[in-house]
Design a protein that fits this description.
The chain crosses the membrane at residues 20-44. Pfam families: Ubiq_cyt_C_chap. This is Ubiquinol-cytochrome c chaperone domain-containing protein. One of its GO terms (biological process) is mitochondrial respiratory chain complex III assembly. The protein has three domains: 2-99, no CATH class; 107-137, no CATH class; 145-331, no CATH class. Helices cover 74% and strands 0% of the residues. The protein is built from 17 helices and no strands. The protein has helices spanning 2-7, 12-15, 17-27, 33-57, 62-73, 82-99, 107-116, 124-137, 145-164, 168-175, 181-199, 205-234, 241-262, 266-276, 285-303, 307-313, 325-341. It is globular.
């Protein structure tokens, strides 16, 4: 049985306790019929759940799990001699869980772990409900409380900078965009994406997800309030279900397509800009090239900022790193001249 246990994951080692313990309960003459057997089985199930939670928290070596499983297999839980061992084992594991400091999980590792999981058989509605309950209860969060406060404040400050600090009128003129609320929303999404691009390479997974969720939640609260104020001025409801659904879809499309385009060539990024910023309408290619230059140069500027300064002070001013276009052109001309002379 141990050979089979070694081939499985560390969580499955504990599962092999079940048949032996049930068999010992059935063959033990010291059990006082049904009540004591039921109590013993309850203690076993509780011990099993505690071991599972401890294994998830602490990186216990496989040999320790195997020895624990063997001792529990050979131990009759109804006997008094087993109780001290169980209590000492749980107390020791609890101390390890509180003192052990594991390496923070990176965002790429979290994404790969999610992609490696088999698809759930539950309906999407049930999955969203379970995810919402876990988010409300804060289960699995290993963030320090002081860090949570800092991340929440940083998310609100960064959203304010993404929505109000950039030169809105100048960008509308440079990109050939009309002065509409939808234009403000699309440009705000662009700056939010650039901030998230900067932060996801520096923060661990839990911290990044909390900051991202707080930033997006603040954005939707602000969007609802702005649309409510505008709707009162023009005496029209702008927060209908279809409008909010369309804006939410544009928000997801923008973040995903900008990610793909930024990591690809300028032609792919140009297609993403045309679909997300210009909504596939007729536009000047010069305006699209300006948007691409602005996005890449702004992300390059954000990379020069320190992470602590971004979280504490926000982005006081949106700047760009000026590319040396003239120098690149001169180098290309020199290469062409060398090739032509050969």
């Amino acid at each position: 049985m141990l050979s089979n246990m070694k081939r499985d994951s560390r969580l499955s080692y504990i599962e092999y306790i079940s048949p032996s313990v049930v068999g010992s309960l059935a063959s033990s003459k010291s059990c006082f019929l049904i009540p004591l057997s039921a109590l013993t089985f309850f203690v076993y199930r509780w011990t099993l759940s505690m071991l599972r939670s401890i294994v998830r928290i602490v990186d216990i070596p496989g040999g320790a799990i195997i020895s624990t499983a063997v001792r529990l297999r050979n131990c009759v839980l109804s006997s008094p001699s087993c109780a001290p061992f169980t209590r000492s084992m749980l107390s020791t594991s609890a101390r390890l869980a509180t003192k052990e400091i594991t390496r923070p999980e990176l965002l790429d590792e979290r994404v790969n772990a999610i992609l490696a999981q088999p698809p759930s058989r539950l309906p999407r509605t049930v999955q969203r409900l379970i995810a919402g309950i876990k988010a409300k209860m804060g289960s699995g969060s290993a963030i320090d409380p002081e860090l949570k406060v800092l991340l929440d404040r940083a998310s609100a400050q960064l959203y304010y900078d993404c929505a109000n600090n950039y030169p809105y009128i100048k960008l509308c003129e440079a990109f050939g965009l009309p002065d509409y609320v939808s234009t403000w929303f699309k440009l705000t999404l662009m700056h939010i994406w650039m901030v998230l691009m900067r932060l996801h390479v520096s923060l661990e997974a839990e911290a990044y997800l909390r900051l991202r969720n707080g930033l997006l939640a603040t954005m939707w609260l602000d969007v609802d309030k702005r649309l409510e104020i505008i709707g009162e001025e023009i005496r029209q409801t702008l927060t209908t279900y279809s409008d909010v659904k369309h804006m939410h879809g544009l928000h997801l499309q923008t973040l995903l397509e900008y990610d793909e385009g930024f990591l690809s060539e300028d032609t792919v990024l140009a297609g993403a800009v045309w679909r997300c910023l210009y909504l596939q309408r007729t536009c000047d290619p010069i305006h699209v090239s300006r948007v691409i230059l602005y996005m890449r140069s702004t992300v390059a500027y954000l990379d020069t900022l320190d992470l602590n300064d971004i979280l504490v002070d926000g982005i006081k001013e949106w700047k760009t790193v000026k590319p040396m276009i003239g120098k690149v052109r001169d180098e290309r001309k020199q290469k062409k001249a060398v090739v032509g002379s050969m």
